[in-house]
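Researcher: Good morning. I'm working through a list of sequences from a screen, and I'd like to move beyond sequence-only analysis. For each chain I'm collecting a predicted structure so we can compare shapes side by side. This is the next one on the list. No need for commentary yet; just the structure.
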Amino acid sequence: MEKNQIREYIIDRLHREGDKSLVSNIIQACGTTQATTYRYLKELESEGIIERKNKSVILKETEEKWSFSNNDRFFQQDNLFYDEIIYPHLKKLPQNVIQIWDYCFTEMMNNVIDHSGTKKVDIILQINSATTKIYLRDYGIGIFRNVMEVFDLPSVNDSYAELIKGKLTTDADNHSGEGLFFTSRGLDYFAAIANGIQYTYNKYEEINILLDENKYLSDFDQTGTLIYMELSNNSRKTMKELFDRYTDEDFVFNKTIIPVKNIFPYPVSRSQANRMMNRCDQFSEVTLDFLGIDAIGQGFADQIFRIYIRKNPEVKILAKNMSPTVERMVRHVQKTEHLPEGR
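Model: Good morning. Structure tokens for this chain:
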């Protein structure tokens, strides 16, 4: 293995696993000697990429913080990302990563400015050699309460269920309802925390571990909204690939994927199914992702896979990551051979 590959392995290993058994793992994975491994670690430390802290080896991280009131010039900028605070710290990253951050940061800041009613926003930027994290904190009404009140929904939990589908905005004249949807799917990790709810597209168990281990997220007092965004500095994702996944040849946003467990950890009832499928007729294709769901209720399955499909033939309903038990229930209510797998 070449030197640059070994250095990249060390950085990635520290980012994902920490320094437990670091040296032995490097030797085993990279085929280096102990002396060579220690030399690489020393080089990375002298370059300021890693550091020793509390007898552990960690990736060295820089942190920048800003606070702005709604009277500051920053709130009036047309292109918030390229203002003097964010882009200068990220300009050495690959162009595809910069483009993702440009879209995601700008969309989330515009939501803060236009929807939250806040008089102040805090921004935190954390960068190490593996990843970049950005936090946005406002002190407004809270994203889920805002959606609940504008659309007269029964609860903030219903706001979550509507937002995760996409195409929902409280300001249709100025927003398409796509920003939160594409931002949550374009990043490696995304969470919007407000009104006692954690919105995420990531696996629910993964994001809970991340939230528990992060001081800014675990200490959030539920005043306003806290947005957490994280992306690998070497990500190969592109905004084009992201948009292609959910749009047609005319770039119309007409496909969505709903992570069922993020909305209903135990989907059993017809009422849950109706809430799940509300507004899905705005899409031509809806994929239900059953990852992490062991079983579903007969009423839930029947309401979606028989009744909804019969009443909405123009909407293509797909499913993926079904457990054998879930798939048997779907087949039972449809009395068909199989349900097409989602992509």
